């Protein structure tokens, strides 16, 4: 499984939230949040919990942020 940072950004934007608002939720600077949202700084489980709460994402819907990594070999088998 791989975390989809693009989806995180899209969900924030869709809800009309700014980078600063999300940074405030985590108690960090705007720049630090931006780096987390872009995958340049690790996003902790605690961070993700606070972010998903702010976005209104329920536990059952959290899977939208994850994608399965499928190797090229596996993809070739499907074709």
TrEMBL record:
<dbReference type="InterPro" id="IPR001387">
    <property type="entry name" value="Cro/C1-type_HTH"/>
</dbReference>
<protein>
    <submittedName>
        <fullName>Helix-turn-helix transcriptional regulator</fullName>
    </submittedName>
</protein>
<feature type="domain" description="HTH cro/C1-type">
    <location>
        <begin position="8"/>
        <end position="62"/>
    </location>
</feature>
<dbReference type="Pfam" id="PF01381">
    <property type="entry name" value="HTH_3"/>
</dbReference>
<dbReference type="InterPro" id="IPR010982">
    <property type="entry name" value="Lambda_DNA-bd_dom_sf"/>
</dbReference>
């Amino acid at each position: 499984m791989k975390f989809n940072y693009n989806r995180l950004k899209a969900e924030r934007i869709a809800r009309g939230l700014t980078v600063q608002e999300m940074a405030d939720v985590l108690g960090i600077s705007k720049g630090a949040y931006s780096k987390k949202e872009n995958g340049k700084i690790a996003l902790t489980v605690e961070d993700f919990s606070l972010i998903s709460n702010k976005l209104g994402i329920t536990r059952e819907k959290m899977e939208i942020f994850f994608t399965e990594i499928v190797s090229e070999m596996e993809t070739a088998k499907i074709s």
